[in-house]
Structure prediction request, 67 residues.
Amino acid sequence: MRVKALVHPAEEGGYWAEVPALPGCITEGDTMEELIINLKDAIEGWLDVANSQDLDQSEGEIVEITV
Prediction:
């Protein structure tokens, strides 16, 4: 899976990033290498939570598409 992230310089040094396709998925790192590791963890965590939520309470339907 490929996901795009927006990387920003942090005012206090280092970087912070957000994943527009995953609302609320943000992280930070002191170096770009650390940021990439943290982004992978944040994305995996976001997806784990999204996949574990009870879908019966939703009015919508979730479908999985492979592209």
